[in-house]
Amino acid sequence: MQLNWIPLIAIVPFIFSCAQPGASLWKPYSFNSSEFQPATQGSVPALWLRSGYMPRLDEPPRHAQDTGRLPTGTGSVAGICYMQASGGKKTDNPTVTAYPDEQIIIKSSQEGISVTRTDDAGYFIEILFPGEYEILCRGTGKPVTVKKGETTLVPLRGGKRMVD
Q: What is the model's pTM?
């Protein structure tokens, strides 16, 4: 009797790659007063991102790692609406205050205008078709390009206290 080892050799690496603890493709991103950057797990608050999936405001539990795919042909935008609370030209480390429950306006020449709101931590998430948008918070806005299957992170400064 001759054993065929080829199928077993091909399956073993696949099993180990799927079974590794912490092999999640979800990554947290936090806002550091000027931009989003990768965060350590447990950083609060954070946006959790995974290519092809809807952004989340919390780490997905192990049993739900593969739920929440973006609808076919869409992308997403996620961000924070904030006010610079201290700092300026004379200070290197500004602090920010998030705007909870703030209206976010999303404009597109193709899709029209839609409105969403920030959560208690000032974060917002919206699923959009690929294209060019302007995202506004408290009258100030940013141009944003949304790509199919991807999430674009957007920090929106909706105001600034004059501190310096």
A: 0.77
